[in-house]
Amino acid sequence: MMSLAERVLAGDSRAIARAISLIENEDPQAAALVRTIFGKTGRAYVIGVTGQPGAGKSTLVDRMTAEIRGRGHSVGVLTVDPSSPFSGGAVLGDRLRMQGHAADEGVFIRSMATRGHLGGLARATGDAALVLDAAGKDIIVIETVGVGQDEVDIIKTADVSILTLVPGTGDDVQALKAGIMEIADIFVVNKADREGADRLVSSIESNLTLQTYGPDQWRPLILKTIATNGTGVTELVDAIWKFRSHSEATQSARRQERSAFRLRELVAKRFMDHLELGVLRPGELEAMVERVAAREIDPYTAADELLALGLTRAEGL
Fold first, then answer.
1. In 3-state terms, what secondary structure has residue 124?
2. Which of 7, 166, 228, 235 has its CA 20 to 30 A from that of 53?
3. What pLDDT, in 10s, does the model give residues 89-113?
C-alpha cells in the first residue's frame, strides 16, 4: 500500500486533502509528511491575491484559474477564510466557490481557516502550498482573508503579490497607505465598471510616482478588471507571466527570504512549545501573564525572565 506522501507525490486528490487537514490540525504526522515531500518541491509558481473584503477576490481567482487552465497549466487554489467561532473551521468553504472547476482534475481547491492568525494567511498555508507543489501543481493561487494592512504576510509566501482594490469603498485611501502599497507587484482595480475606477487608478499611479525605480527594477503594473464577466483577466495573467519573466534573476533571493521567515517562525513556535511544555512548571506562564496584565512587570522584562529561567533549568538537566 502506498504511503500518504507517495500518494501526494502521485497527485491523488484525496491524499492532498488529507495531507492539508493534517497540517491544519498540527498533527504530528504533518511534520513527517513535509520532511518526506520537501525535496520534491520548489517547482510551482505561487500567486498571492490579497485585498479588502468585497473586492471580488474570489471571483477574480475563479476567472484567473480558468485562464491559467486554458494555457495548459494545472492549478492549486488555497483560499484563506475567517475562522468559525464555534468549530474553528473556515466560515466560507470551497464548496461555495469555484464550482465550475469541480470536475476538472487539473484544479484542486481548498479553503483554510485563519484560526486567529493575523496577516491574512493561515499559519499552515505555507505547508499546504508545499503539498500542492509536491503534488505537481504548476501554479498555486493563494487568496487571503482580506483584513487590510495586516495582509503583508502574503509577500512572505507568494512569488508574485496582487493587490485587488475596488472604487467607491475607501480603497483609494487604503491604497495610499505604505504598508499595503509596498506588497503589490501588480495592482488590480476590480469592478472597473463602477464610478471612480479611473480616479482610483490615478491615485495609485500618483503614489507610484513618489517612488524611485531603477532601470532593472519592476515598477508595479495597474490593471482594470471586471471579474464577473472576465474583462481584463487575460491581461492580468499576461502581467503575471511578465513579472515572472522579469523576476527570474531575483527569484532565488526572494525565495531565500521566504525560507528565512518560515524557519524563524518555526523555531519561535518550537521554542515556545518547548518552554511551555518542557521547561515551565504548571501555572508559571499564566502567573507571568497576570503580572504583565497588572502592570507589575513590562513584557520585555517578563520575556527576559522566562528566557533566563529556561536556560537555567536546561543547564540543570
1. coil
2. 235
3. 444 444 455 667 877 889 999 988 7
